[in-house]
């Protein structure tokens, strides 16, 4: 190798992630002043001085720190960083604002100087060596946050931890206001019930775009005599829609008769629907018996779970729809009928038609107008209202005080996937009223299966940023995301009216629903 003085000098540029390793090498070899530079062919082409490496590494670290510090001060979440002993080493501006603690009062002090130890999830994360995601916490009086924490590792050792906290105090405040308002409405039960009776759709609750669209379509067809097919998963409230159609129709003065096609054995279905003549079969009542079709005369017959109807009975129902008449079992005289048919199913009838399990002609007769009812997981913004209504219903039924849902309980309900839909939510609220004696329903009052680490839970909603000084569009998006699309709550959060909220949504071509 040529003497270093005869080799050209090369400039040095270092990446931040290489700096620590280079410092270690140079510190371990203080006598080395030059480091040889090799080409891709492993040939000596020059040198760099250790002084140049130190200067370049120092600048790389300074640049990295500048970016790191800018990120900490730019994000809208409150960020806290502590070392392994729990001493605060970084406290961003958002944390100062959220907790009203200046950096100079908390930096270089233990985190428990300002917070109770059992309220600091960051210490638990460091102690356990595990991350915590979307955890509701109340670290100080009046502060409600969703916490994400993670330990910081270096060479396999925990050297500290970082916590990002989203302020949801406004959402909790709005929820408390809603609970208080609902408690006052509890005293007006009789008056409100009387007023609601005037609306045929009063039993269908919610203001989400999905449910309003289904109601709008149902209202349009209700005043006609057209056959209606209501589709949707079990528990979404298909029978409530069928009842609303009946009450809103000219047949409202007639009977509403419901028949579950899946609950009746195939051998008995025909006699249950059409009735039978005396002596029609062994065990029959001597004078015969009228069926559901007779009972629904002049009104509406609701056939639930129509997909379970046996093929041999499908043709007989088709005859009723086509000819407006039927025969009783054992009878030979056609009986004219004036009944509107509303059917419902949680199955895909078109697929059943293709598989030969359902008659195509009957499907077309039933499917004059189809109304799909959305599952509860697609209308999550309705959950707070529905939960409050069910709590009130069962508090009245069982003569118990009306409790409120704790904020962290509401968050669990919003994140849950609800495979049983509204029926499952209603049953849960009834259970809570019966078994809970406290004024506030906490997560521990929920039965097994409703915790975030227990399926089924919907995909977590990305953490929304707290509202701050930023563009009108960003504020609007964050308010809607924070309140899960609930327009009234979003308007309150922004301090504007619903009309102003809708005007802004229209301004930015955002869907009103």
From TrEMBL:
This is Fis family transcriptional regulator. The keyword Transcription regulation applies. Keywords: ATP-binding, DNA-binding, Nucleotide-binding, Transcription, Transcription regulation. GO terms for biological process: regulation of DNA-templated transcription. The keyword Zinc does not apply. Residues 204-434 form the Sigma-54 factor interaction domain. GO terms for molecular function: ATP binding; sequence-specific DNA binding. CDD domains: AAA (cd00009). It comes from Aneurinibacillus migulanus (Bacillus migulanus). It holds the Pfam family HTH_8. It comes from the Bacteria.
